[in-house]
Fold this protein.
Amino acid sequence: MILAGATSQAFAAELAAQTGIDIATVTTERFPDGERYLRVEDSVDEAVVVASTVSDEAWVELLQLQDGAREAGATQVTTVLPYMGYARQDHAFESGESVSARAMARAISTGSDRVLTVNPHEAAVCDFFDVPATPVDAAGRLAAPLADLSDPLFLSPDDGAIELATSVRDAYGRGETDYFEKTRHSGTEVDIEPSETSVAGRDVVVVDDIIATGSTMSEAVTLLDEGGADRVFVTCVHPLFARDARLKLERAGVEAIYGTDTIERAVSEVSAAPAVAEQL
Ligand code: R5P
């Protein structure tokens, strides 16, 4: 049965539709001190726990769902992280810094037999888990809403995301790929160097794994606009959209924004669940 966290209801519904696995009833309440009570109402044999850990609250719920699954009889627990929060904190730059991705992976491993996570920032984050963990590429799903592109260029804002741009291009069926050079100065400040590929008069699709503050993508859209691109589409697997990210993109002149439902937002145009269903 699928046990869904509050952050992943649409994703879980689509996963159920794709796989035919039923969704379990999970009830939650609050104790007077604010702590969550959680109970899995159905008896469970194999559990698929689905939760995007977009907040600390969602992390706690995920651990409770895993534990509730065992209490409800599950002998096998697969944890699906449509979006794994903290995954970008995968390295200690100074002594004493928490490698948060590792801490989270270890915690998840205690309640799980297997983990699937959609397009983690670095696939190497899967090595932090103590149980088999597999990255799932759902970027190709972002090609679906892109219709009738003229001389398309699929571009990533840095070389690290070129594989995602290639996945979207391959799913779309035609077009060139390229990447910009990005330097990050702070959490919200980035510099992007254009490539030598001409964008004048072309439809450009920018592809990244995540839009957080929108700084990266808005810089890219501005550069493409200055380069004479016709229409600029922005796509990402994980539409986190912190602070005024959406406004930044609109101000930069984006034509349309498409994300998946790994994080459920207004731009979640396509579902990543079919890509996960193939791995279950
Ligand atoms: C970083 O390398 C990632 O791939 C994204 O480009 C980054 O996390 C986006 O963050 P923001 O939207 O804050 O620029």
